[in-house]
Specification:
PGP-like_dom2, globular, six-stranded parallel sheet, 233 residues, HAD family phosphatase, 9 helices, alpha/beta, HAD-like_sf
């Protein structure tokens, strides 16, 4: 867990119960979920295996240990989890070095949160080496804290990453709004007690208690996030 700018503490706007915004990375802020699948497909092709497209929904949004482990078991590939993880991270780094598109509304939302001094954390299942590369495109100045999947005892769908982010910012998880794009990430945020905005990228996500589903980040702004807190149960 690395602080990228001085933490802003628990300062909130007057009259707002929102203490912090915690954001997922892949598929939420940057349009990279497809990149991961492309890299996985290429790596397994080099090993002599073809991935079934239906597996994409299984591996999306999860930690590399889970997704890579599933693909090894499903294909029977003769490779260890550690070896595969290196190949996948290397391939992904090369891919984002060529192109890293932001999701619609991401740049505007980050700028708005920064302008209003809302404590914001980037919380990803991706490894630190990947997060640090992506931060160059997102702008490290927008985040008081970043949490990588290889820096917590248990990553998503466990609550540990979001609990670590809230603790690092000095805020109450129940007063945090989380923005996620996968069921795995949503499960982690809800297990941590956060309010969730789901912006589905690959697989559908249904609305539920303490969870709001939107079609795009273009629907999400600071008044929207503050409004989530006023409807807390």
């Amino acid at each position: 867990m690395t602080s990228t700018v001085p933490a802003l503490g628990t300062r909130t706007a007057e009259g707002s119960a929102l203490q912090a915004v915690l954001l997922d990375m892949d598929g939420t802020l940057v349009d990279t979920e497809g990149f991961w699948w492309d890299v996985e497909t290429e790596v397994f092709a080099s090993l002599g295996h073809t991935l079934d497209d239906s597996w994409r929904h299984v591996v999306v949004g999860g930690p590399m240990t889970r997704s890579a482990g599933f693909l090894i078991e499903a294909t029977g590939a003769d490779i260890t989890l550690a070896e595969l993880s290196v190949l996948l991270n290397d391939g992904f780094e090369q891919r984002i070095g060529r192109d890293l598109p932001l999701m619609p509304g991401a740049a505007r939302l980050l700028a708005e949160l920064t302008a209003h001094e809302i404590p914001t954390a980037l919380v990803s299942a991706s490894h630190r080496r990947i997060i640090d590369r992506v931060l160059k495109s997102l702008g490290p100045q927008h985040f008081a804290l970043t949490v990588a999947g290889d820096e917590v005892p248990r990553t998503k769908p466990h609550p540990d990453p979001y609990l670590a982010a809230a603790a690092g910012l000095g805020v109450d998880p129940a007063r945090c709004a989380v923005v996620e794009d996968t069921a795995t990430g949503v499960a982690a945020a809800e297990a941590a007690g956060c309010r969730v905005v789901a912006v589905p990228s690959v697989a559908p996500i249904t609305p539920a208690a303490r969870r709001t589903v939107v079609a795009s980040l273009e629907e999400v702004d600071l008044p929207f996030l503050r409004g989530l807190m006023t409807h807390m149960r």
